[in-house]
Design a protein that fits this description.
heterotetramer; A: alpha/beta; Transcription Regulator spoIIAA; 5-stranded mixed β-sheet; about 40% helix; B: alpha+beta; Heat Shock Protein 90; 5-stranded antiparallel β-sheet; 3 helices; about 30% strand; globular; binds adenosine-5'-diphosphate
């Protein structure tokens, strides 16, 4: 798994590439929590994720809850079919704000 | 074809860095048996979750526990069996969490049950045994 | 970590449709051992070529022959061993073709030899045994 | 492996997706030989190939030789890094005409 972060106005866009699993989700968790402190909004690009397991989904739920407590925004975009299927299997898609493109994700504020 | 059926056996440490090896094999195995792309992903996820549970719960995230995995093509689908020597699962916690809620946890055992047709957890003299099967016909 | 080392054993029919299963496992295994992307591909290719040779030459493209594959993480890298019960290789044909020519054939055994550090073909009572190893240090 | 074919002027463009190995290369071989009869030029897009083994490379060599015998053109384009590496390992890259883009591949006649 590779993570890259860039600024887009006041928001931060985080891009993840590769597999998010029990081995790599702690890294993702740390990066997301750190960056949530640095901006009012995080937009997570999931287009290059080949695989995500329930520890990855759990990480996203934790970050979402933390963002709500801090009055910040945490949104997802670019869900690949594989990611969409895992979201479906875990029945959690409804709790997230999900967009098709980065533009839409950033425009949502 | 009356020849041998495919079977795989992995002997692996309870270290998450080996999970991609299992995932790499199980998806193509499911495809070779006859499942389509989305079932292959679901089966991969279910097995990965079962392994992750052994690492986290049976071995409390120690990386040096022993896990044995056997996957085989059966007459009507796939069988996977896992064995570990760690702490036995507390049966009352398996699929105990309500689904469709927003708690970050308790998802793995539901995924396994949803994806596979049969799932069993047994205590044996050799260790904790997990067996799951899936018939080719069923679409999830 | 003093725990078990990773080892895989596949029992498979000599059917090309199972080759993706082996490739799916060996690439991530090489990555877990420590090789970079290009070495992982080379190792995957070498093992795939060794299997393809067994299917085509030892079993003359019959799909119901038995192949046993064992891959294990060794102290300094990777060891793969293959066993088949088909026709034994004619040693004089292995790496017999000149490389860098434009003939469509004779490539597989060269790839195997180029990629792996040691390669051996043995006749044993159990069948034809192919063993190849690669140390982590060597870059190809 | 998936194969798709389309016309581009007098030439045919063949696109291959997925893995070319002992199991799938006979299909590729058949398709390429058939289409070589139908056009003066075949351009093969290798960008979506994830894996190719020596039976795939051997297939390409056979088609190249057949194209030369028939006074036709057989060119390759869009070699992914994985494909390039296998070409290197098999030392056969020099015998092929290789282009970056479809445009260049089609312009070569
Ligand atoms: N292989 C296992 N060994 C021991 N305990 C297990 C195992 N699998 C599941 N469990 C128990 O079942 C519970 C639910 O597991 P799961 O649904 O995967 O969610 P989570 O792992 O997030 O708790 C775990 O918390 C654990 O107590
Ligand atoms: N596992 C094997 N069993 C039997 N014969 C083999 C085996 N591997 C290689 N050979 C022999 O070595 C020759 C060269 O193999 P290779 O370099 O892979 O090229 P090709 O398979 O295209 O002939 C084969 O033609 C075959 O005679």
């Amino acid at each position: 798994m590779k993570i890259s972060i860039r600024d887009a106005g006041a928001a931060k866009v985080v891009e993840i590439e590769g597999d998010v699993d029990l081995g790599t989700s702690p890294d993702l968790r740390r990066t997301l929590f750190e960056n949530l402190l640095l901006a009012p909004k995080l937009a997570l690009n999931l287009a290059a994720i080949r695989y995500i397991d329930s520890s990855g989904i759990a990480t996203l739920i934790e970050v979402l809850k933390d963002s709500q407590r801090r009055n910040k925004e945490f949104v997802l975009f670019g869900l690949s079919p594989a990611v969409q299927q895992v979201f479906r299997l875990t029945h959690v898609i409804r709790i997230f704000q999900v967009f098709q493109t980065e533009e839409e994700a950033l425009g949502s504020a | 074809m009356a020849g041998p059926k495919l079977s795989l056996k992995f002997v692996m440490p309870s270290d998450p860095r080996y999970l991609p090896v299992v995932r790499g094999a199980i998806g193509p195995l499911a495809a070779a048996i006859g499942w389509g792309e989305s079932d292959c992903l679901a089966i991969t996820l279910a097995l990965d979750e079962a392994l992750a549970n052994i690492i986290r719960h049976a071995y409390h995230s120690r990386a040096d526990g022993l896990i044995e995995l056997e996957c085989s093509e059966s007459a009507d689908g796939l069988e996977v069996a896992l064995l570990d020597k760690g702490e036995a699962p507390d049966r009352t916690k398996i699929c105990a969490r309500a689904v469709a809620c927003d708690q970050p946890g308790g998802l793995g055992t539901h995924i396994i049950k949803d994806v596979m047709d049969t799932v069993s957890y047994q205590a044996t003299p050799a260790g904790n045994r997990f067996v799951a099967t899936k018939r080719l016909r069923k679409t999830i």
